[in-house]
Write a structure and sequence with these properties.
Pnp Oxidase, Chain A, alpha+beta, single chain, 317 residues
Length: 317
């Protein structure tokens, strides 16, 4: 039963960190193949949701869907209906398909609540789509910056300015260097042995002090990985499939930055030892960039830094 809860990559990282035996039982209790009522109600009150999908070349992408609260509903514990279509130039424009694996992160930053769901896309239409649940579980409130999102009604540009490239442009660098939040999508490799419900796509939140992602001269990104729930869904995927997708949101302008990257886990070394609070580092090599101006129809309240970040370090220390 544990092999159905966590795949080989997740179990390997849990083993390395020394928590595999404990997670074998915990995973069975908290990772379900249905949504409890509180999760179903929670998704229904959100004005946005983060999605992770994989394109036809096997590249994971992190995306965002936004609409007035109520655009998500759950008719039964194993199904989620989303009445929204992808934003202009969002990777979901190309990756959404019936039968496609998808990961969803419902997050309410101002209350620091978040719930995860992995499943399969069904019933795709012009109005939206549904997701058949494979795994559903909650996440702790750590590292979430408290800022309240409000959906903005009214016309939005169907053709926002889009900037593409194989590497970061200067605006993308500035956006990353100022960020206190990112979202990361990873996937269990399609050509590996069938992992059952534990396979598919995951999408997760990462937070830190502003500038917690370092941008090197060559465009390489380095990020601390702090103490979490020990499931290691993201790191477990990277252990068997290093391709990942990153999403950065400019909470002032509504700009969205989508990155296709290859990821590496840094387990030890002077950089790790010098960054207070880091358990590991994640290093990303950018393969493709898409920056979309003023794309997200949300406005955000002022940010309150997560209190658990106070003792953590910063790259300029």
């Amino acid at each position: 039963m544990n092999s159905a809860t966590f795949h080989e990559g997740e179990r390997a990282v849990q083993e390395r960190v020394g928590v595999r035996d404990r997670l074998a039982q915990l995973g069975l209790r908290v990772i379900r193949d249905f949504m409890p009522d509180q999760h179903r109600e929670f998704f229904g009150q959100l004005p946005f949701v983060i999605a992770g999908t994989v394109d036809s070349n096997g590249q994971p992408w992190a995306s965002v869907l936004a609409a007035p609260p109520g655009f998500i509903r759950s008719p039964d514990p194993q199904q989620l209906l989303l009445q929204a279509r992808p934003l202009p130039a969002d990777p979901l424009q190309d990756t959404l398909a019936n039968g496609a694996a998808i990961g969803l992160l419902g997050i309410e930053p101002h209350t620091r609540r978040r719930n995860r769901l992995n499943g399969v896309v069904q019933g795709l239409s012009d109005a939206g789509f549904s997701v058949q649940v494979s795994q559903s579980f909650g996440n702790c409130p750590k590292y979430i910056q408290a800022r309240e999102p409000v959906y903005v009604d009214g016309p939005h540009s169907s053709k926002p300015a889009v900037h593409k490239g194989a590497q970061l442009d200067e605006a993308a660098r500035r956006m990353i260097e100022a960020a206190d939040t990112l979202f990361i999508a990873t996937a269990y490799a399609d050509d590996r042995v069938d992992a059952g419900p534990a396979g598919g796509v995951d999408v997760s939140h990462r937070g830190g002090k502003p500038g917690f992602v370092r941008v090197d001269v060559d465009g390489t990104l380095t990020m601390p990985d702090f103490l979490g729930n020990f499931f290691f869904n993201t790191l477990g995927n990277i252990a068997v499939n290093p391709r990942a997708g990153l999403l950065f949101i400019d909470f002032d302008s509504g700009d969205l930055l989508y990155l296709a990257v290859t990821a590496e886990i840094v387990w030890e070394g002077p950089e790790l030892q010098a960054f207070a609070g880091a358990q590991r580092l994640l290093r990303f090599k950018v393969q493709a960039m898409k920056r979309v101006e003023a794309s997200l129809p949300l406005r955000w309240g002022p940010a309150e830094l997560s209190p658990v970040l106070e003792p953590t370090g910063h790259w300029g220390q």
